Amino acid sequence: MGDFLQYVELNSYLHRLDPRTKFVFFIIMSVLTSFVKSGVALLFLFVVFLAIWLSGRIGKYMLVLLNKVKVLLLFIFLLWLVLGAFTVNAGPTIYRAAFSIFGNPYVFSLDWFDFYKGAVYSLRIFLMISAFYTVILTTNFSQIILGLQSWKVPYAVAFGVGLVFQIIPMIVQEFATIMEAQKSRGLEVDKCSALAKMKNYVIVSLPLLFRVLSKGHSISLAMHYYKLNFKVKRTSYKMIKATYSDAFFASVTAIATVVTIILQVNYYIQV
Amino acid sequence: MSFKIENVSYKYSPEAPQILKNINMEIKEAQVTAIVGPSGCGKSTLVSILSGVIPTLMNKGELSGSFQAGDEVTISVVSQTPENQLFGYGVEDAIAFGIENMGLASQDIHERVEYVLDLLHIQHLRKRAVSTLSGGQRQAVCIASVLAMRPDLVIMDEPVSSLDPRGKHLIQSVLNQLRSSGQTTVIVDNNLDWFSGIVDHVVGLDQGEVVFDGNRDEFFAQFDVQKKLGVIIPQEVEIYRELSTKVEGLKPFSTLDEAFKELSGRIERTEVPPLHDEPEEQTEAVLSVIDLSKRFQDGFQALKRINAGFEKGKIISILGQNGSGKTTLVKHLNGLYRPTEGAVTYKGAVTTDKSVAEISRDIILVFQHPEHMLFEESVYQELTFCARAQGVPFSEEEALAVLEKYDLLKDKDELPVNLSMGKKHLLTILSVLFSSADVIILDEPTLGMDLHLRNHLEDIIRHLKEKGKTVILISHEIPLVFKISDQLLVLDQAQKLDEGSKQELADDEALFEKINIDLPPVVTLSRRLGLNRLACDVDSFAEAVISKLHLIENSKN
């Protein structure tokens, strides 16, 4: 699993940005990708993302993400392709045939537009996921807590969110170790049928559950040792402050948003 | 300030058995107090009461007696797993977490962070991410985070149990700093070996009762209590325990220098090169690694051209600091990792095309943390898991006899995760007795074990050897390694430095200096006293000293 789903320590401008700037980027891009359905606009947004990733030196981590979600993206593409094939669209057709089932007439019409539609939906999902992942890769959980606190999010909520991002890599590591331990004592998960493999993965979930419960217990004890009380006002060792880089990044986000909206208005094909 | 615990009794529920029975003790100001006792004696419950976890977080039990700790008193705990205790991505974030919770002004927080970084000499770690620290460094940061809260009492629960020798040295030096700064400290650990030079006061618990309360030297003088409590004591004290019954007028000692001073006055040093035992007959290497190299995907070179053979019926220990490549090597032996270059062969055949489960029929690896392995619903089921997974026939009588021999019969229907850490570990090791594997690899098998369980472990390892099995051991418990191993394989920075019999390697002081591991006191004393054979365990050392004393006596007569 390596660095998947966790902060990666690098000295890049993206890492140095104020977490709030990255939160704003994430919110805007999430909203944008929820509404924008123009292939041209999404393609433009993808190019902007690509520039951000490459200049922030996280390109290879985004490739890892792409690799992990490729099956999901393919599924979305095929789903829209198949659904689209039962709708007659304008534009060039690859194959069209009429047939009937139980006396009901149907038209199977595979058009180039169906491919376009499948690609648009896959790209939208990928951009949504990667906007979130860009923030996760470049913002550690302490910065996430600080950022949320500065937005007046109650500390209990901010701490909870930060804790989730602290614990996820631990659980991923625990799962990998438990798999290794079980294989080492004879549990076959490599050379067996898919059903047996699934059954064996379920077996592994029990020690994982115990480990997670035990970690949860240790963490609650540690919160007690450190006198964490959400009713008492906390102070902060570190302060976060926006810089010129934040202003620049925010400007890029704003310009990219405006251009995307213009492209959406001008090049929108109903999908 | 001092803390008085008076008539404290506790049980987890009205129907549950009494865990603590009328505990009376005092934790003295500016002293280091050790609380020792076997698994299940009530140490952890006492820590929960002292730290306020009982009754603040766990309030369903019955607690009586008094422990004077008001709201204004700060008592902090350092647990054995700092990764579960540290909140914060960076070292500074983690250290500041507790003081931020106290609502101190920013200036005060900065001052306290600087103070603890200076006090523990860990300024160089301040900009590091917690996840990139070694075990010892992580524990030092954990101690710093607790000290920053300026606690009246710091309790440390087995703080070095999972650290390598380098990590232990770091925590020893941190504790020395604390002691000289006048910090009142309690260390809960049944292994007194690593902190015997720091401890002032020892409290022994057994079955929920205080059975010893005195200073360190008094504890070291009470052999029966040490044995009853299953406390692991410094090897020097073990030597004294062994010799004091046979050598008249021997004064007590607990350090290497004291032992040397006491014994050198009685033994004339002879400048003869040390004799080695006759080399044992070499048997065939059942398992071999040939030119084994491993480079991970991120480019990290974990092993460089390792060549080694593991002989049938031998106990071979792999030594080295964390990161030297020990675990990576054994994960190649059972197929969890595939080599970048080179090969692993079992009985002459390359293992590459086999799955890990297939290899486990011949080579089985028992992991460091038993929770990663246990998932059956009863101790009995867990014991026989390997046999069932590998299709090895076994009888119920056989399994029950093993449980009885190792004091687990009464727990046979218990959920394995409910056992103490030491017993859980023992159970995972016992399960390999029913496997078909000829090579057993044990990674840090002593984790969480008191002396009683450790004796069981030694017994199991010898039993495996007698059955002609090869045992490969990774352990930071160096005295144990020298006591039970036949051969050693030393790794450092991904390379093999040396391999050979333990006596041959014990003779090479430079080798152990290079890997920064202290040789056991018996080896060092044998050399300093000029014994003609380097002893690797207390029994053979005592035997050598006695025979030398007899020789001197005879020559005088």
Question: Could you please describe the fold and organization of this structure?
Answer:
The complex is a heterodimer of chains A (271) and B (557). Chain A has 271 residues and is mainly alpha-helical. Chain A folds into two domains: 1-139 and 241-271, no CATH class; 155-229, no CATH class. Chain A has helices spanning 13-16, 19-35, 39-55, 59-84, 112-138, 141-150, 155-184, 194-225, 244-266, and strands spanning 93-101, 104-111. In chain A, strands 1-2 form a two-stranded antiparallel sheet. In chain A, strand 1 and strand 2 (104-111) form a beta hairpin. In chain A, helix 4 (59-84) packs antiparallel against helix 5 (112-138). The longest helix of chain A is centred in the last third of the chain and has 32 residues, at 194-225. Chain A is flat. The mean pLDDT of chain A is 90. Chain B has three domains: 3-237, P-loop containing nucleotide triphosphate hydrolases (Rossmann fold), CATH 3.40.50; 240-275 and 523-556, no CATH class; 310-340 and 351-506, 3-Layer(aba) Sandwich (Rossmann fold). Helix content of chain B is 36%, strand content 21%. Chain B is built from 22 helices and 19 strands. In chain B, strands 5-6-7-3-8-9 form a six-stranded mixed beta sheet, with helices on both faces. In chain B, strand 18 and strand 19 (495-501) form a beta hairpin. Chain B is globular. The model of chain B has no long low-confidence stretch (mean pLDDT 90). The interface between A and B is large, with 53 and 69 residues.
